[in-house]
TrEMBL record:
Coiled coil: none annotated. This is Imidazolonepropionase-like amidohydrolase. GO terms for molecular function: hydrolase activity, acting on carbon-nitrogen (but not peptide) bonds. It comes from Novosphingobium chloroacetimidivorans. CDD domains: Met_dep_hydrolase_A. Keywords: Hydrolase, Signal.
Length: 450
């Protein structure tokens, strides 16, 4: 690449990412989402989605201008231009309702600090673009990204560059900076005279909470993220205990303002008390929810609050954190597994979230499906949580989450039968988002601004 061409590419990227920069010409859009204007024809060996269940094929899926127009059995000879997926199962694009594309890893105590202290927001935005592209290649065509974690407003730039067709990635809902109680979130523990960045916006009092919500929505936040507690520890009864940070009044003010402005509120709550406070305040989802008791589960089921358990894709994370001396991390896998089983039995709606970004990006979020199955969820329940369930939580189920005529053509394919071997979801061979093919025969397809 010549210097002139490199400079031109850099200028275009900066213009796309910087607010107020020159807008690139975009493909036609549907509700802010760039889509294909041509026809997509697939021949699948089988189809699964939460709306229609498992359907054996061959089945033809046809999309036009980014939307599915027909799904029907078709055992005829393959037609010219049709993509042959007859040895594979087609599913809706996966949806991860808890990601952090601006984080590279948060496995150990020093990982988070190093990113906030040593990596510029500009660098982390570029890293976020790469992470978003990886998620799409893994088959995740939509994500809810819950906090830039000290990365400024870079998640907005990543979302907008994807929507404009400048770079590849899933469609994104972003939380921007998230909201925490003053002095209750990293970076912590530095000398009093040393000024350090904080991974979320700090507030004290209901009025400051409302102001933060308004400011974040004004910047472009799609969802409001709150941290309701800190310092998880192991209780004498084997539960997870924590220190509540935001008061009930602050929680009600923040969540109420989010709802008043048409945004949902996602609340990180690791203990039963924090989850209770968040549910009582009107939270739309409880994130992590490491320990939920019977009262939590009954209240969440009654009020329709989603549980996003954020199972670690890297099973070694808890062990590494336990090595730092906090016994809760040694017990966490078993505690969380029991909580998920209770929640499913209790009728709580589950949306899939991996928390990727906390785990290393060498781990595919779909690796979390196996431990969820080990905790008692059926494969169909897990796949529903990672498609239609997450779409409903995000309020986009009218467009994505299932394979139905009229919906956007977000389609993936995997070898074999996922209902009998859920690990095949880690080997996605085909990805189309809005009718645009991004992966075929297991290899990326160069398109758009790539």
């Amino acid at each position: 690449m010549t210097r002139r061409r490199l400079a031109l590419c850099s200028a275009v990227l900066v213009a796309a990412l910087v607010p107020g920069g020159t807008r690139a010409l975009a493909a036609p859009e549907i509700a802010g989402i760039a889509v294909d204007t041509g026809t997509l024809a697939l021949r699948c060996g089988a189809v699964w989605d939460a709306a229609g269940g498992h359907r054996r094929g061959p089945i033809a899926i046809v999309a036009d201008k980014g939307r599915i127009v027909s799904i029907q059995p078709d055992g005829s000879a393959l037609r010219p231009g049709e993509t042959d997926l007859r040895g594979e199962t087609c599913l809706p694009g996966l949806i991860d309702a808890h990601t952090h594309v601006m984080l590279e890893s948060d496995r150990l105590e020093g990982d988070y600090d190093a990113q906030l202290l040593k990596a510029s927001p500009e660098y982390r935005t570029i890293v976020g673009v790469g992470h978003a592209g990886r998620l799409l290649q893994w088959g995740f065509t939509a994500v809810r990204d819950l906090g830039a974690e000290g990365g400024g407003w870079g998640d907005l730039a990543v979302r907008d560059a994807i929507d404009r067709g400048m770079v590849s990635g899933p469609r994104m809902q972003v939380a921007t900076q998230a909201i925490v109680a003053t002095s209750a979130y990293p970076l912590l523990g530095y000398a009093p005279g040393v000024s350090v960045p904080v991974g979320a916006e700090q507030i004290t009092g209901a009025d400051e909470g409302r102001r933060a919500v308004r400011a974040q929505i004004g910047r472009g936040a799609d969802v409001i993220k709150l941290y309701a507690d800190r310092g998880p520890r192991l209780g004498a009864d084997g539960s997870v205990q924590s220190v509540p940070t935001l008061t009930p009044d602050e929680l009600r003010a923040i969540i109420g303002e989010a709802h008043r402005q048409g945004r949902k509120a996602a609340v990180n709550a690791r203990s039963a008390q924090s989850a209770r406070d968040a549910t009582d305040a009107g939270a739309d989802s409880i994130e992590h929810g490491d320990y939920l008791d019977a009262d939590n589960i009954a209240a969440m089921a009654r009020r329709g609050v989603y549980y996003v358990p954020d199972f670690d894709t890297d099973a070694s994370i808890s062990a590494r954190r336990a090595a730092g001396g906090n016994a809760v991390w040694r017990a966490m896998p078993q505690i969380k597994c029991a909580t998920l089983a209770r929640a499913v039995r209790g009728g709580v709606k589950v949306a899939f979230g991996s928390g990727i970004g906390g785990a290393d990006w060498s781990y595919n979020p779909a690796a979390a499906f196996a431990p969820m199955a080990a905790c008692g969820m059926t494969v169909a329940q897990i796949l529903t949580s990672a498609t239609l369930g997450s779409a409903r939580l995000m309020g986009i189920d009218d467009r994505v989450g299932s394979l139905e005529p009229g919906k956007l053509a977000d389609v993936i394919a995997v070898p074999g039968e996922p209902l009998s071997d859920i690990s095949v979801l880690q080997r996605v061979s085909f990805v189309a988002k809005g009718g645009v093919v991004h992966r075929v025969t297991g290899k990326p397809v160069k398109s758009g601004g790539e």
